[in-house]
Each structure stands twice: as C-alpha cells, then as structure tokens.
Amino acid sequence: MEIFDQLIETLQTGSGFWNPIIWILIIIIAFLLIYVIRGFGKKQYKEKTGQIQSFLSGNPEYEKEQMKIKSSNIYWGFTEAMKWIYDLLRKMHNGNASDYVLWFVIVMSILSVILLLVGMVG
Amino acid sequence: MNFLEFTPALIVAIPLFGAFLTPIISKINEKARNIFAILILLITSCLVFILTQDVFANGPRTYIFGDSNLALPVVRILFEVDGLSMFMAIISITLALLGVIYSWSFMKENDGLDKYYTLVLLLVAGMLGMEFTGDLFNFFVFLEISCITSCALIAFYINKGESLEAAFKYIVISAIGALFVLFAVGLFYAQYNALNMATIASVLQFGFLDKIALILLIAALGMKAGLAPMHMWLPDSYGEAPTSVTFILIAATQASLYGVLRILFTIYGNAFTNIEFVFSSAIIHWFIIGLALITILIGVLMALIQTDFKRLIAFAAVAEIGYIFLGIGVGLTSLGVGYGKTALEGGVFHIMNDAFDIGLLFLIAGAVYYATKETSLNKMGGLARNMKYTAVFFIVGLLAVSGLPPFNGFVSKLLIYESTYQLNPIIAIIAILASILLLAIFVKVFYSVFMGPELPNLKDVKEVPKSMLVAMGAIVVIIIIFGLFPNLIINNIVQPATNALVNSSSYISKVLSVVV
Q1: Which candidate from A7, A16, A103 shows the least CB-CB separation from B488?
Q2: DSSP code of B79?
Q3: Which member of B186, B310, B316, B492 has the greatest number of CB atoms within 10 A?
C-alpha cells in the first residue's frame, strides 16, 4: 500500500511540483483534441494526383535519395554564426595526448592558485 | 555467523573469481562461457540487491579483511558500504549485466572473447571495489585495476589504429590521474598515519597539505569522471571502444565520480561546514559549479558538429556529467538551505539517469553499427523502415537524455534547474538552453539515421538480434518506470544515497566504533 502511495505521489521540487500521471492525462486529452480537429479536414483528398506533389518555389522535385540533407549540413546556420567558438573548440580538441595532460595541469594550477592564495583568508 | 557480514567482500570477490575462471570455461564451450559470465553477474546483482536492502534499513556495514578487530593506526583493508556505495553499485552491476547480455550477439563475430569476458569481469570487480572500499590506498588499487582493464577493452579492436590510439590516450590520462591520487594518499598518510577514509575525516585539520591533497584528488578524479576541460579522452575512448564496452565504461567513469563525492562529502565534509574555512569551501563549491557549466557548454556545442554517431553521444555524455556536477555543486553551496538538498537529490538521481539514458543511446549506436557497419551519420538514413524497435528505443532515449517529460531525465533535470534557479537564475537558464540544444542535436541524429528515404546501400538492413533488443528494451522499461514514478525511486534509492552524503558522521562513526 505504501508503494502504491509512492507511485501516485506528486514530486515536490521546493518551488514547484511534478506529477507524470496528470501530464499523461493532459497528453491523452491533447491527442483526443487533435483527433477531433483532424475530423474537420477535407474528405475530398485524392491520392496519386497533383494534390500530393510538393511545391518547391517552382523548382523541379529531385529524386527522394537526392533530397536527403546530410547530417553535417543540418544546423549549418547555427555553426556558421558560432564560428568563433567552434574555431576555439576545434583547436582545443586537437587529439594530442600531451595537450590533454596540459589541460589537467591548467585546471590543477588554477585551483591551487585560488585555493591556496585566496583561501588564506579562511 | 551472519551471511550478510560477508556480502561486501563477496560482491567484489565473485566477479574477480569469475574473471580467472572464464578462460578455463572458454576452453570447454563458447556458449558456456557467455552463460557463465551472465551467471556471475546475476549472482553479484542478487548480492548487491540483498546488501542494498540491509544497508538502507540498518545503516552502513563494514567488512574488515583478515581480522574482525581494528587497531590504530588503521591501515588494514576495510570495506565500508553506505547508501551512496549501494546506489553506485546498483548502477554498475545493472550496466555490467545488460552490457554482457548485449555482448552475446554484438561480439560473437570477434576473436579473443575469452579475454574480453575476463577483462569485463575484472573491470566490474575494480568498479565495485572502488565503490565499496573504506580505505584510500585500496581505492587507488581498485582505480588502477579498472583503468588497466578499461584500457585493454578500449583497444579490443586491435586491428584498428584509432582504437589503439584511444587506448593509449586513455592509459596516459589514467596513469597520470592515478599517480596524483596516490600522491594525495601519501600526503594523508604522512600527516595522519592513516589510510582509512573515516579515520582521516575524523582528524582532518584542513591545513596546507590537506588543501594540496584536495586539489590533487578533485583534479585527478574530475578528469577521470570527464569534467571539462579535462574531458578530451572521453570521446576518444567511448567512440573507439566496442559499444558493449563503452556501455560498461560509463559505470567505470561514474566510479571516479563516486570518488569525488566521497572526497567532498565524507573526507572534507566536516571541514566545509566549519565556519573557519568558509572562504575555502565557497571557492571549491563555486569552482565545481563553474567547471560544470563549462562541461555542459563544451559537451553540447561539440556534440552538435559531430558526424560520427558514437562520438556525438560521447560529447552528449560529457554534457550530462556537467549536469551531475551542477547539481552537486549547487547542493554543496547551499547545503543548509532547503533547495540545497533538492539540488543534491537532482544531481545524484541524474547519475543514475545519465547512466541509463546515455547507455541506451550507445547501445542503439552499436545496434546501428551492427546492422549497417557504418558510424558516419552522413552515410545513413531511412533505417526506421527495417529497424523499427531500434528506432522506437532511440525516440525514448533522445527524449530522456534531453530532459523531456515523462521520462527519467526530466525529473532529475527539473530538480537541478529549480534549485539552481534559486541560487543563480542565469546558471539555470544556461543549463536549460543547453538541454534544448541537446534535444535539437538528437532530433538531427534521429532524422539522419532513421528518417528520410531508404538509401540504396542500406536496403537489406535487418533488425538486430534478440539479445541486443532485450538489453535495450530493459533500459527503455527502466527509463519509463523512473520517469512515471519518480517518487518511488527518489524515496527508496536516491534519498538514502543523498542522506549518506549529507550525514557523513554515520559513515565515520561506524568505523571509529569498531576501532580498538
């Protein structure tokens, strides 16, 4: 019985709460609403006619295999905008084991300086 | 004589014993060897769960090797298990068991599997030893065992140059890290004539040498746990090791994370709560929060530009480690305040969620590799047609790792976000934005691997064998249960672990009470 109580118990997070059961109920209601709205759609839809052809601003439609966007091209705009960060990160991740150790030494040095010098206060 | 008295030692001894028997059984029959490895881990799992129940109900348990009495100076090997040890042991043994089940089909085409299973069982013994020992030198020994076995397993594809390079980098990093841990242990021994964690914690002065030891331990174990900017070895190793090994390596990495927790809360816990050292403790706590934020950002940003499936997940794993450290850092900063405990619960719960979420994604990457022999995301597409179960498992994994409801990742991240927001809203906002970016990254992966038109070279791809599906399915079930019933997990598994962290006095007094 105690376990059952815990199953349906609401998780208190201090300033908020989380109850997945309530969330699932909301999702079910949302799906029902979607289903109802879908019911208002046009029933005259015809397959294998011009109705299903894509319109690419007047450009010809390529074969499906050619339409696939490569993984490295997705979010191109984001990576281009953040180019300066990526240049820095790529330099950091150079695959050199000596540099990996160097980062370890850097972190240890920073922590030493802060803790031993500033920490002298208390 | 009580059977439970011996369980801490048996939990480490059984996989160790199994490791040495595996090559002999391998001579008889390969199937028998696989069953034997699973059986060994099943027996160990049963013992872990029996001991967990006992520790959660009755408090920490000790096992002294060689003698029932302890005398000062405490240099005898001693196992001490509390709520945190058991929490970590549950994660380690579950990952190891599922990893070995997955290996059955995944590794069957490879040679040298007798060595593979031997090394896996040795790695399990090493991880569990790290989590159970109450002795710092013993911790170093188990750390070395896990490092050497991990290195050998990373280099398992010995014909691949990249695997050997990754293994080399791993052993360089591990050896340097372990050396600094040993140096810190030496500093403690020189000062206090003790190697036992509880004894050191009870007499720690937090003087100059103690601060040096703290710096060495945090940097070395933080590097082993994958904390940025010392994380670079992690994508190399995770990316090149066989997938089943990567899956178990997550637990090995988390064993180092356990070391950080043990150092911060048990050994230095009293010093941090001392008003005399308020500045020093604040520096350490904010340093951890700062590194956690850097880890999250570097992990997420680097994951975005990866085109190798496993390497991408490895960077996401780095980001997830950042979330764990963020929860722990916020918890340390505000331990006396209400939200401090919430942050700590979130951080500790996220250790478990990270292991299962990232672990599932790695297993899926392995399944895709098994079916297509391809790791580049640019060369994949349309796999959902032929790998329906794997595709569904990936959806669960991507939603869980991105912290979307109703999966497990959401619950722990919610606890971390809310408590971090109360400490500093800007940090919480950055963490949430990084999580959104993580979702965007895995949506890209889902599109690249499973959606889109069927590629001509991948038309004949088939779903992976049952043993691999069983391992992935088991994790999916765990993720859903953890997400739907978070209180069940938090009340029964997470809270005993966080209580053990916060009330380190029970851990310390347990050992001191048996010292003659």
Answers
A1: A7
A2: E
A3: B316
Distances (CA, A) of B508 to B93, B189, B200, B260, B511: 26, 17, 9, 17, 6
Quick one: CA dihedral B181, B183, B186, B192, positive or negative? negative
Q: ipTM of this model?
A: 0.91
Peptide bond into B23 cis (omega under 30): no
B243 closest CA partner among B439, B446, B101? B101
Q: How far apart are CA A25 and CA A18, in angstroms?
A: 13
Neighbouring C-beta atoms of residue B50, cutoff 10 Å = 14
Interface test with B, best of A75, A105, A115 (most B CBs within 10 A): A115
How far apart are the C-alpha atoms of A116 and A119, rounded to whole Å? Answer: 5
Which two structure tokens, joined as six digits, stand for A105? 């030494």
Helix, coil or strand: residue B334? coil
Q: What angle do CA A32, A36, A41 make, to 5 degrees?
A: 140
- Provide the greatest CA pair distance for chain B: 74
For residue A18, the surrounding DSSP H or E stretch is: strand A17-18
Q: How far is B339 from chain A (nearest CA, A)?
A: 6
**Taking a C-beta distance cutoff of 8 angstroms, is the pair B324, B355 a contact?**
no
Helix (H, G, I), strand (E, B) or coil at A122: coil
User: Where is pLDDT greater, at B392 or B381?
Assistant: B392
How do residues B8-45 score in pLDDT, each as one tens digit? 999 999 999 999 999 999 998 889 999 999 999 999 99
Single pTM value for the model = 0.93
